[in-house]
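Hypothesis: this fold can be encoded by more than one sequence.
Test: take the structure tokens below, design a sequence, compare later.
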């Protein structure tokens, strides 16, 4: 028994050393600083910004079908279907494309294109007026919405990482559809971070087909009272210092945010901030064909509008063909040029996002939360330890040692895993202390019953642990399952509570059963046979 007891004691000491290392790591800059580097504080303790953003996934669907409109026009022309009109006539149904004016002799050729593998994500039907309607399938819409939300999360995360914000929380927000939760602990400039996160950065370049107009009514009158289905009206300045005007632009962009390979801030020849960009190979070839066909010296000269955040920032004539690089000059400050370059480098958002909620936690509130939480934890632990000493006498020391080791294991686990400690996490620690005491109470009361039944101290300890074990497992497993459910379906602070509670319960099983048993066996080994047990 002595050899087995020594082995268990060595194992407990090894576990204690390992988790102490998890708390402090390799000490540097003092013990306090080492602990701070290992145990990360959450938003509610450190201070920072809490945001809830909504992704407008319908824009991604509209953009995808806009692209398919342009592609379908080309495919029909290649198939010899001339004179057909392709567009989206109902703004409330961005997932539907209408093909009208198909010559009767070309119906078969048109049907072959529409029902081909290139448009397998659409259901094709004939409308009451004889036109063909392509409606994106429900499954395809859902997949696109999911990809849009996932891409938005990754893009926002990359932007935040570029800004150097430590320990950010960026994830789906379970309380609403297509929403993102962003928590930024310890941000120095929350206003700038919010601006970067909320900005769509959906920069696109469109062909100008009309304008500028002073009002929407003037634009409608100039176009026969209706906007062509392949065009759209966009407000903007058109140049630095110009008043707000309205432009008629081609709905399908020539290039957009996802086509940009790199972007860097700079200055033009007049010292104004600008952005130098490079396009992907495919986008560069497409942009070259457009600009070459519409230069000032060509038969069909044209101009292009640079649209950012759904506003025209610059309208410029095309002097020469542009392939894979160019410059964007507008009414930018240097900071705006830097931020826009960052957004284009880290990838454009597939859809715009809007700001639903913000909560800012100041450092003073964070410090107060830490103080109150720590005071509550220490007070609760001291009260429990004193009660155990008074009520269970010598065995209370056993329980108190197990509780202290349980806390060391829990903090060491957080240090190893890089978990973030939140205020609900502290509540989880306090609840873990209560669960640890509950386990000791079950064991100690069972030992008392065995002693009252006339058994020796050794037999009472053995039977006490054996009978209490099943109850302890039952209570801990049910609570761990509850914590797992909270982790899976909760978010932010709720997950922090679930993590500390679940691992604290695992630590309880280790300390209440193994550590307490080893302490009892060590005491019994040193006592004379038949001596009373202080419990």
């Amino acid at each position: 028994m002595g050899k087995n007891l020594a082995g268990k004691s060595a194992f407990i000491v090894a576990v204690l050393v390992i988790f102490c290392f998890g708390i402090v790591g390799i000490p540097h800059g003092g013990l306090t600083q080492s602990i701070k580097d290992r145990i990360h504080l959450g938003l509610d303790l450190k201070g920072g910004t809490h945001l809830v953003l909504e992704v407008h996934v319908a824009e991604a669907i509209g953009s995808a079908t806009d692209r398919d409109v342009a592609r379908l026009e080309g495919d029909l022309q290649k198939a010899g279907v001339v004179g057909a009109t392709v567009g989206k006539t109902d703004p409330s149904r961005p997932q539907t494309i209408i093909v009208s004016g198909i010559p009767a002799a070309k119906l078969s050729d048109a049907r072959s294109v529409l029902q081909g593998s290139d448009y397998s994500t659409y259901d094709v039907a004939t409308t009451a007026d004889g036109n063909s309607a392509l409606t994106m399938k429900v499954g395809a819409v859902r997949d696109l919405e999911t990809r849009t939300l996932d891409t938005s999360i990754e893009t926002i995360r990359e932007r935040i990482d570029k800004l150097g914000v430590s320990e950010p929380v960026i994830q789906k927000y379970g309380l609403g559809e297509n929403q993102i939760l962003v928590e930024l602990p310890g941000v120095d400039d929350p206003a700038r971070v919010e601006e970067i996160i909320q900005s769509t950065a959906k920069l696109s370049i469109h062909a100008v087909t009309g304008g500028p107009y002073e009002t929407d009514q003037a634009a409608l009158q100039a176009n026969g009272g209706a906007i062509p289905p392949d065009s759209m009206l966009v407000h903007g300045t058109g140049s630095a210092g110009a008043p707000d005007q309205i432009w008629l632009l081609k709905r399908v962009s020539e290039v957009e945010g996802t086509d940009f390979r790199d972007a860097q801030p700079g200055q033009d020849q007049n010292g104004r901030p600008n952005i130098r960009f490079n396009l992907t190979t495919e986008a560069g070839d497409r942009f070259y064909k457009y600009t070459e066909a519409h230069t000032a010296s060509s038969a069909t000269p044209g101009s292009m509008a640079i649209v950012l955040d759904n506003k025209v920032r610059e309208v410029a004539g095309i002097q020469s063909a542009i392939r894979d690089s160019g410059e964007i000059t507008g009414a930018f400050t240097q900071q705006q040029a830097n931020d826009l370059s960052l957004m284009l480098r880290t990838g454009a958002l597939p859809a715009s996002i809007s700001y639903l909620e913000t909560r800012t936690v100041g450092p003073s509130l964070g410090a107060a939360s830490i103080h109150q939480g720590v005071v509550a934890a220490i007070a609760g632990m001291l009260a429990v330890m004193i009660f155990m000493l008074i009520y269970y006498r010598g065995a209370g020391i056993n329980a108190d040692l197990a509780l202290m080791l349980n806390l060391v294991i829990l903090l060491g686990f957080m240090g190893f895993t890089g978990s973030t400690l939140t205020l609900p996490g502290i509540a989880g620690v306090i609840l873990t202390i209560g669960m640890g005491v509950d386990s000791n109470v079950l064991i100690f009361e069972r030992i008392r019953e065995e002693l009252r039944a006339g058994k020796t101290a050794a037999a009472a300890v053995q039977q006490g642990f054996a009978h209490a074990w099943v109850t302890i497992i039952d209570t801990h497993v049910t609570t761990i399952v509850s914590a797992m459910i909270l982790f899976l379906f909760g978010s932010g602070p709720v997950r922090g509570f679930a993590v500390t509670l679940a691992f604290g319960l695992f630590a309880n099983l280790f300390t209440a059963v193994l550590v307490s048993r080893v302490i009892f066996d060590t005491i019994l080994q040193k006592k004379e046979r038949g001596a009373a047990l202080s419990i």
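The chain has a mean pLDDT of 82. The two ends are 23 Å apart (CA to CA).
Hypothesis status: open.
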